[in-house]
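A quick word before the example. In earlier lectures we treated sequence and structure as two separate objects. From today on, think of them as two lines of the same record. Here is Na+/H+ antiporter NhaD/arsenite permease-like protein written that way.
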Amino acid sequence: MRLAGIGMLGLAAGGMAAAVGVLPTAELAALGLRIGPIMLFLASISVVVNLSARAGVFAALAALATQAAGGRTWLLWTWQILLAILCTAFLSLDTTAVLLTPLVLAVVRTAGLRPLAFAVPIIWLANTASLFLPVSNVTNLLAVEGGTLGTPAEFLIGMFLPGAAAVAATVLVSVLVFRRQLQGRHRVSSGGDGPETCGDRMPFRASVMVLVMILPLLLSAIPYWITTTAGAAVLLAVFALRERAAVRLSLVPWNILLFAIGLMVAASVLSALPLAGLLPRPGPGLGGMLALAASGAVGSNLINNLPAYLVFEPLAGSPELLRALLIGVNAGPLATPWASLATLLWHDQLRRGGVEVSWLTFCLWGLLLAPLAVAAAVLTSHLTGG
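And the structure line, produced from the sequence above:
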């Protein structure tokens, strides 16, 4: 079933639950007000990212990374790791999955390298590096909308060290799994494709300007959706003047938005059922944090991290527990293909690029990494008072 179809089923479940009184209409309306800014952010950041990619900004970054590596495979891999972390933190994990995967596949083909050593860490980092900022993951946005974790800057202060611990665990496992493929040297291309623009550099310059401006503003007190919507409006105006064919409805991933909305509505229905009240409440201290993080990770791998977050959110009665839950639902969805929407998007990009990955092998790797990343981040959060 396609993503949009699953989203429609979730919306239908919400409508039926409201009709029979299981989910009060007021709660459904409150959910709409809560996720509205999030959906606007996802739509506007997609416009910014897709138009920037059209202008050649990310291809230029990939080319710079290839040239800087100078034929050294480990250094090229390191540049990719850093780019994946930054892209995830500032532009969301779904952006990393959709945007960086085809770019990395193109780079490794040019360099004559095996793709999985570069492609698999991308999706791992897309999940584990999504702990740093509210805009890194929809689950973070849902948590921030509740007001418990403060401003984006306060969120970063509380989550930076746990996020760094999760990323460190990811990089360590990646090196252990792919160490043999990172040795030696690779081919260095003498040239590359230029920006995909209409012949002038204005779209490229405008895209760089917008990205440079919105990235620090995402840490400010300005609502995140205002920042990205303004950036999208600027780029739409520039491309409408310079390259009108690039301005189209497909800039926004409507099926993904519908899928996310449907999942969150379905999760609200689950939360309204008596089953939600039967969930054991976590205890105080490190034990409670680990228990809630583990519940979020297991729930994510069973039903996807968006509904898992909404189901367990009522149990997170303090900022410490809420951070632990975010660690579970962000760094934990690594063991099943459907645990994170980003993983499905990543696999689709691999399929389009003609790269096959064994889901069994992927799940076994995830079963190794997920507990390490979650435990490292929770322990760091507890020790630092986050």
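Notice the following. Residues 66 and 298 are 38 Å apart (CA to CA). We will return to this example when we discuss secondary structure assignment.
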